[in-house]
Amino acid sequence: MGSTKISTSQAKGTSRRSGLWFVVAAGVIAAVVGLFLIYQGSVNPKPTNAEATSTVYDVGSPGIGEAAPDFALPATEGNTVNLSDYSGESTLLYFHEGLGCQPCWDQIRDLEMAPAILQKAGIDSLVTITSGPVDLIAQKMADDGLGSVALADTDLDVSRGYEANKYGMMGDSRNGHTFILVGPDGTIQWRADYGGAPNYTMYVPVQQLMKDLEAGRVS
Fold first, then answer.
1. Within this chain, do residues 70 and 31 fall inside the same structural domain, yes or no?
2. Could you tell me if 137 and 76 are in contact, meaning their C-beta atoms sit under 8 angstroms apart?
3. Alpha carbons 211 and 179: distance in angstroms, whole number
């Protein structure tokens, strides 16, 4: 039986067609991958440096260099706490939205879990302040296993004095996410109101918080 022979020209033609199909297929795949990456970029845009580091914040009044207004508020432990009780210490006040804002309580948890970081930053005490009935705040602290000083500013009288209710997503009816460092002499050394527009930040990583404090602190 005779064998079938393919001419050299036919073989070359077949090779060229195979190569062409490979190039076309590779181009289609590249286009599909490119479109997918563009789509992913539009759906999950890469955060800007400001968004990634949470360093965007306002500075309300009273601000750095001003005397921190004294206050007396009921604590979840059943006693009354005055700011003047912390005279001679560097005290970090944390005004937060409170009940219904889980990231706010997570913020307290993470601060409590970083005593060495706070000590390195020269912070002696952490005092948290939010609106709401003192018994409900106490229950939330217990539920989350938190042990910081927690004060109830139910009518926002103290918060208004610090303008901590001006930087949040709830208008002026609740606090936002404000940190104020009060020095040993009662003077405000640093302030950051994170909760205002446009980001309405309700949680700041502790390391970033300390970086912001270090960068903006005036002793």
1. no
2. yes
3. 13
Task: Please give the angle made by the CA atoms of 115, 149 and 125, to the nearest 5 degrees.
Answer: 45
Residue 169 and residue 148 share a domain: yes
- Residue 2 lies inside a defined structural domain of this protein: no
Range of the domain at 202: 57-216
Q: pLDDT in tens for each of the 219 residues of the chain?
A: 444 343 444 444 444 444 555 444 555 455 544 444 444 433 333 333 333 344 689 999 999 999 999 999 999 999 999 999 999 999 999 999 999 999 999 999 999 999 999 999 999 999 999 999 999 999 999 999 999 999 999 999 999 999 999 998 888 899 999 999 999 999 999 999 999 999 999 999 999 999 999 999 998
- Domain match, 38 and 112 both: no
